[in-house]
Structure formats: structure tokens, C-alpha cells
Write a structure and sequence with these properties.
alpha/beta; binds phosphoenolpyruvate; TIM Barrel; 8-stranded parallel beta barrel; 457 residues; binds cobalt (II) ion; two-stranded antiparallel ribbon
Length: 457
Amino acid sequence: MSSVTAETVGPLPASWHPSSWRDRPAAQQPQWPVQSTLEQACETLAKLPPLVFAGEARQLQGKLAEACAGRAFVLQAGDCAESFNGVTADSIRDQLKVILQMAVVLAFSAGVPTVKIGRIAGQFAKPRSSSTEVVNNVELPSFRGHMINDISFSERSRTADPERLIRAYHQSASTLNLLRAFTKGGYADLRQVHRWNQDFIASSPEGRRYERVAEGIDAALRFMAACGIPPDAPELHQVDFYTSHEALVLDYEQALTRQDSITGQWYDCSAHMLWIGERTRRLDGAHVEFMRGIKNPVGCKLGPTATPADVLELCENLNPDRIPGRLTLISRMGARNVFDALPPLLVAARDAGHPVLWECDPMHGNTYTTPGGLKTRHFEDVVTEINGYFDAHNQAGTWPGGIHVEITGDDVTECVGGAEALSDNDLERRYETMCDPRLNGTQSLELAFRLAERLSD
Ligand code: PEP
Ligand code: CO
């Protein structure tokens, strides 16, 4: 029997606990005015039921492992920042509809199973490049998402309020409840594919192209019935839909981290999947420390400054046991950088034998401000980044496992370009996002068709 010495084992990993992040520098945390009210809010949260179950997070990890192995494609999509205002059953349903439409296009046109994850039911906190904002010589804290403060520019609105953590929990619970009802209660039935095509989308060329996909699905269902294939397979009538958000406010995430009664392991039960942003991925920082101990599938954004060494250290820290599906790395390089910046990262993980699931976020590296002062993104830049991402993977011999996009089912005008050729002048018409510009329903569907073309190359 070989003996293992201290040198070969190396230092034992430091012990982990849901609160061990507190010993590390935590970037992007709100300035809560009164510590005791924050502590009370966290105590309240810690007693509330989990939003998701550990078993569901494990099931998602299994599906992500399939994507990691090149047998599935991940569609992670939703709001940049969810709002506490104006959330209705219709707005949640419309967000789900467009994700289901995109997934159907990918699965039907490209023949790949699609893993569906929403940026929803918890996406309430935003990292900011500046901690304050100045308007007319008045300086106030930046808006950090409805989990923390409010967007209007007054001292009261911008003061971080821990009660909002509890409100974020309750809104996540009601959103998730409706999502579960829609996805398991008949709305996501494949016989409903035509109903997902909202009026304003249906009248566009993409909507008509989608109708042809839907007719193809009808025909496939009829064919299966004619062959005597039993029509009651749950896959035809229900959808597995998972939730995710950026694990930014660590007090909130810690309060929802629970020990699974079956395995004894810790799961962050605020969502099925959590990710770390580009601004909080410091290896010695609090976010990496928190994420390394939870057993949910986790993600990490990588911008153009990420090095191969960063990738390897993130892999070692976040997935030391090399479990496929555990770690998703989400590149967000920008259309101009992707082809130079991404390949060395793909090669580093590949050569080290780390099972990384790669996603492309083609949004955050392509944001710019118009002369009129609105943040936007050009649809063609989004497509260019996705093309560069596919090319980089083809060259490295790795699988482009998914995309991560900011979209809405609504007919907003936030991103320019696309088949409707939205221009800067159109943006004012329906610019509703609380943070970054999202693809509207038609642009999202168009993106799905472009993706399907690349996937079936
Ligand atoms: C986001 O996903 O909304 C975000 C802020 O991304 P990033 O961390 O890549 O900037
Ligand atoms: Co964003």
C-alpha cells in the first residue's frame, strides 16, 4: 500500500462554513446604515423555508454535466435586474414564454436538448462600477438593485434597507410558485407551442419563422401518435425550469444556506444555480470562499482581463473534485475581444483536464452609451460575440455549452439592431430596464434562430 506523506497531500483545505466568507474581503456589499436591523433581517430569513430543494439543484447539476459533455446546450436567460414594482402574472408568464420559445427553436432546429435556467426569482442585486452617483452636484449611493435600495434619486430611496432582503425572498417565492405552476401545470405542454407566440412577435418575420417550427412540432407529435408512441410522456407536457441569480449580497445568501437532510451537505436554497460576477471573482475574496462550499452548481463570469492562471485557480477552488456540471465559466469578452481572449482560457482548462461547462454572455462586454445618454447594446455585436465564441470552441476542440443572456418577453426598445432595425432614436419609446438593456421578445427569438444555425453547422 502506498503511503501518502504530508508533502504529497499539501495543505489541508481550510474548513468551510456558510459564514467563513466573513474573514475575506467582500466586494460590492451594501452599506447598511444600522448593523442590528441587518442582523434581524438575516435571522428572519434564516427561519423561512428554503426556496428550492437540494435535490433539485443536484438534478440541475446532472443536466449541466450533460452539457459539459457536449450532449446538451444551456439557455440561461432573464432580466438584468428584477423589479419589486409592477410584477404581475403576465410579466412572469411573458418572460417564461420567450425562454420556452427560444428553447424550442434550439431543440427543434438544432436537435440538442436545452437546459433552461432563468435569471429570475432572485435576481435583485447589482454590482456597480461606482458606489455613488452624482446628479446636479448631489452625491448619493448608487442604485444596487431592489434587494438593497430604490432607483429614484433621493437620499431615502438610495439608503440600503435590510427589510428589502425579506421582500426579495417573498417576491422570489411568489415568482417561483408561478413558474412551477406554469411549467408543470400544462402551460409548457408542447401542444401549446403556438400560444407562446405573443401577438407582437407573431407578426414579425421571426414570429412567422417560429410558427413554422411550431407546425413542425405539431407534425412530429401527430407522427408519434400515428406510430403508436404513448402520448403521455411527461417530457411532452412539462418542462424542467431552474432559477439562478448572481450571488452578490452574501448576508442574504448565507441566511438561505441550509444543510441538506439527505446528504448533510450545504446548499444555498435561494436558487438552483448561483454565479459570481466579473467584479467579485477575486480568488482570495469572500464570494469565491462562499461559493466553494455550497454544493449547488455554480458559475463565474470571466471578462477580457481573465488569465489562464485565473481559470485554473477558479477551477481548483470551485471544483477541486472535478465534478462535471458543478462549474460553469461564463465568458463575457465583448465582440472585439472574444477571439483573442477566449482561446487561451479554453485551452488552459482543457489541458488541465478540468470539466468546465462554458457559457457565453454576449451582453456585458458589448454595452455602450448613446449620445442621448442611454445604455444600449447592438444586436449584431451580440451575434458577433457568439460567433467568436463558437469559432474559439471549434478551434480548441471544446464544446460551446450555452449562452447567458439578458432578455425580456416584452416589446421594449433597449437594444438596437435586429430584424426590426431599432435605432438610437427608437430607444426612448419603451426603455424600461432598471439596469442593463435587454433583448426584446423579437430580438430574443431572432437570436435563438441564429444560435440554432451555429449549433447545427
Ligand atoms: C450581470 O450578469 O448582470 C453582470 C453584472 O455581469 P458581469 O458581472 O459580467 O458584469
Ligand atoms: Co446586466
